[in-house]
Amino acid sequence: MTRSICWALFGLAAAPSCLIWHKLVLKWGYRQALTRNLLVQALGVILPACSASLLFCVLSALFGGLYLYGTVTIALPKAKSLSHQVSFNMIAAMTALYGVGQIAGPLIAGALYQIAASFNPALYAAALALLIAAGLVFTERQA
């Protein structure tokens, strides 16, 4: 029952996420919006490692849904705006790298689970990666 509730909340939060993040990009700009988006992701990812309670499950689902499409809403237009600075299709490269992550992520999470008999190390690693990404976006040099 708990998982069903959390997945339903995830979907409800995901539904308006593109519109919300688009408005936030207009308000804050690319860098602030993507930095905050990545921080929200990190928080949503780490919550289940902090507690298995229904509250943390619900909060993780809400945060997860809110960032789900937001990252793409922010990143793809930015990639398109930078495409004249590179000699390759940046959106294709981002899509390919996303696919690599979709394959590598579960493999790494599975390996960490085999070592620790818990998904917490994978959640910590994912949250750390998101925090590093947020730091890189926040400190990005202007072209």
Automatic annotation (TrEMBL):
Any one GO CC term of the record: plasma membrane
Record keyword Membrane present: yes
Segments passing through the bilayer: 44-69, 90-116, 122-139
InterPro entries xrefs: MFS_4, MFS_trans_sf
Lineage top rank: taxon: Bacteria
Pfam families xrefs: MFS_4 (PF06779)
Region forming the signal peptide: none
Keywords: Membrane, Transmembrane, Transmembrane helix
Entry annotated with the keyword NADP: no
PANTHER family: PTHR23537, SUGAR TRANSPORTER
This protein's name: Major facilitator family transporter
Organism: Klebsiella pneumoniae subsp. ozaenae
Classification lineage: Bacteria, Pseudomonadati, Pseudomonadota, Gammaproteobacteria, Enterobacterales
